[in-house]
């Protein structure tokens, strides 16, 4: 693979994301599903199937990809139990719990402004 150009769009975006705190935060929780996944884990541990059943419209593949991202970013803790059949739980980490008041505020904002769209 070739070396990336210093002035490429991807390099510019990465630099911006690491320098702008808001862009950094949005990259960690942005997208259609991540904040919903985190919100479902607010009240405690859930298994993969429980998460999938609580989030309408998400595919297994998309849930898997987002859970991996959230775990890599330190927002979700994945625990595998040595049982047959295997059991895996997902839960919020301490830094993800710091986001709870933020998504509550977003939820409130959404409720208020959704009425204007109807």
UniProtKB/TrEMBL annotation:
Keywords: DNA-binding, Transcription, Transcription regulation. Pfam families: HxlR (PF01638). Residues 20-118 form the HTH hxlR-type domain. It comes from the Bacteria. InterPro entries: HTH_HxlR, WH-like_DNA-bd_sf, WH_DNA-bd_sf. PROSITE patterns: HTH_HXLR. The keyword Transferase does not apply. This is Winged helix-turn-helix transcriptional regulator.
């Amino acid at each position: 693979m070739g070396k990336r150009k210093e002035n490429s769009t991807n390099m510019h975006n990465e630099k911006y994301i690491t320098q702008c705190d808001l862009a950094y935060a949005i990259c960690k929780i942005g997208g259609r599903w991540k904040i919903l996944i985190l919100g479902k884990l607010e009240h405690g541990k859930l298994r993969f199937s429980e998460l999938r059943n609580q989030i309408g419209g998400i595919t297994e593949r998309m849930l898997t990809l987002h859970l991996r991202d959230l775990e890599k970013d330190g927002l979700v803790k994945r625990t595998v139990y040595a049982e047959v059949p295997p059991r895996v739980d997902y839960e919020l980490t301490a830094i993800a719990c710091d986001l709870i008041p933020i998504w509550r505020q977003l939820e409130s904002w959404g409720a208020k402004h959704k009425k204007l769209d109807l």
